[in-house]
TrEMBL record:
PANTHER family in the cross-refs: GLYCINE OXIDASE (PTHR13847:SF289), SARCOSINE DEHYDROGENASE-RELATED (PTHR13847)
Organism the protein comes from: uncultured Thermomicrobiales bacterium
InterPro entries: FAD-dep_OxRdtase, FAD/NAD-bd_sf
One Gene Ontology term of the molecular function aspect: oxidoreductase activity
Keyword hit for Transmembrane: no
Keywords tagged on the record: Oxidoreductase
The keyword Oxidoreductase belongs to this UniProt entry's keyword annotation: yes
Descriptive protein name: D-amino acid dehydrogenase
Pfam families in alphabetical order: DAO
Location of the FAD dependent oxidoreductase domain: 5-403
EC nos: 1.4.99.6
Any one cellular-component term (Gene Ontology): cytoplasm
């Protein structure tokens, strides 16, 4: 068992890993180049939603992606670039868009996320303070056929103890959220799901780790890992060198830059997502009360204390923080189509409004990388959580702590073995 561990990356996954290790008595050093506000752990919808266990690659997605690419305001945007690694990634992604992989991936993610709510309660019990809401998640659809199909798909989750919600008509959905427009023909309400304020979760975890004795090395960038005889010996940063008994790399979309020089394949693309915050929320005839997913538009609406956040868009344009105005306009337009009384021409600049972006760490099969890196006995990866990092961070952390401290690979992370990419 390692007595000291260096965790690289202070997003929600790295922070949860650090806490799980610290609680097992390990001396933890956490290194983060930020905290980077442009990291996904700050810029996300804040949903804790184990029921949304489907990996991104899905049957039919290839055709849909091609159709989406023809529309500038569709939820997906691929900015072409000549980069062999990206083209290989796209090809592998498209290969994963089949029913068998999708079902196996859904089952694996559902199994990992099964204890999520219990683990979130445990974070709070361990002294992590964060803003949390227990208003469920309302899925809203404009297309009844799609709604029926997706609702039937929830059956995959039943064996994992997820309750299947009843199908709602448009009026029943409006009874829950009166501001939904008539264009919404129905939906379903996942009553047990929760939401958190992402920035509060990151700051709460950091504060708790600081109090617990974890060494926090913030504003320090890892520039390399030195290894010998199948083990990482030293983490090299822009400020110095840290001797390592074991290392956990949880650097989100930046992970390949850190581990690939060691010959480890970590095919992660940045799936840029956008968030628009309104504090206070825009004036509506009836304020939005609960998180809503506008399914066809892939827009997430999250009411938080004194604020409303819109989040969405999947932009494959490499690892950058550039904001494209057309994506912002599309998010607003789609929201306006589904929310009654949404202010036309609402400003996206000025006091109380913030537009920001963050990279989701996306693997080509849509599954995270959790476990020992191939060829290294003391280097673990905890990354690639794509759209579900906030949800899966505590369960990932438990598994990593078991791996590093207990020397055992928990069954629920076997499907996420980083070695599957060779
Ligand atoms: C718009 C949007 C909405 C989303 N909504 C949800 C949601 O509702 N629910 C959900 O579960 N998930 C959601 N996600 C996904 C979720 O946000 C991510 O999966 C998760 O935040 C990934 O966390 P992470 O810790 O792996 O990576 P990150 O948050 O990217 O953190 C990586 C960290 O590594 C650090 N780092 C990078 N390089 C180095 C280096 N060389 N040295 C030191 N440190 C380094 C960075 O500074 C950063 O802090 C959403 C994402 C987006 C973008």
């Amino acid at each position: 068992m390692a007595r000291s561990v260096v965790v690289v990356g202070g997003g929600v996954v790295g922070l949860c890993c650090a806490l799980a290790l610290e609680r097992r008595g390990v001396a933890v050093t956490l290194v983060d180049a930020g905290p980077r506000e442009s990291a996904a752990s700050h810029v996300n919808a804040g949903w804790v939603v184990p029921s949304l266990a489907e990996p991104v690659p899905a049957p039919g997605l290839v055709g849909q992606s091609l159709r989406w690419m023809l529309h500038p305001d569709s939820p997906l945007s691929i900015i072409p670039r000549i980069d062999p690694a990206f083209l290989r990634w796209l090809l592998a992604f498209w290969r994963s868009c089949n029913a068998r992989s999708h079902r196996a991936g859904t089952e694996a993610i559902a199994a990992l996320g099964a204890r999520t709510m219990e683990l979130y309660d445990d974070l709070r019990a361990a002294g992590v303070a964060f803003e949390e809401h227990r208003d469920g998640l309302l899925f809203a659809y404009r297309d009844g056929t799609l709604l029926g199909h997706d609702h039937a798909g929830l059956e995959t989750l039943r064996p994992f103890g997820y309750p299947i919600p009843p199908l709602l008509s448009g009026d029943e959905a409006r009874a829950l959220e009166p501001s939904l427009a008539d264009a919404i023909v129905g939906g379903f309400w996942l009553e047990r799901e929760r939401s958190v304020r992402p920035e509060s979760l990151v700051s709460g975890l950091l504060a708790r780790l600081g109090e617990g004795g974890t060494e926090l090395r913030l504003g320090e960038t890892v520039v390399g890992l030195e290894a010998r005889d199948g083990a990482v010996r030293t983490v090299v940063t822009d400020r110095g060198r840290i001797a390592a008994e074991a290392v956990v790399v949880a650097a989100g979309a930046w992970t390949p830059r850190i581990v690939e020089p060691l010959g480890i394949r970590a095919p992660i693309e940045a799936g840029k997502g956008y968030a628009i915050d309104f504090a206070p929320p825009p004036p509506l005839p009836t304020p939005l009360r609960r998180p809503i997913y506008l399914h066809e538009a892939r827009v997430a609406i999250t009411p938080l204390d004194g604020m409303l956040r819109l989040a969405g868009t999947m932009e494959l344009s490499g690892l950058n923080a550039r904001v494209r105005p057309e994506r912002v306009a599309a998010l607003l337009r789609r929201t306006g189509e589904a929310v009654r009384g949404w202010p036309e021409g609402i400003a996206t600049a000025g006091p109380g409004v913030r537009v920001w972006v963050g990279p989701r760490p996306l693997t080509p099969d849509g599954l995270p990388l959790i476990g020992w890196a191939k060829g290294y006995r003391n280097l673990a990866l905890a990354t690639g959580h794509s759209m579900l990092g906030v949800t899966l961070a505590p369960a990932t952390a438990e598994a990593i702590a078991e791996l590093v401290c207990g020397g055992r690979t928990p069954a629920e992370i076997r499907p996420f073995d980083p070695a599957r990419f060779g």
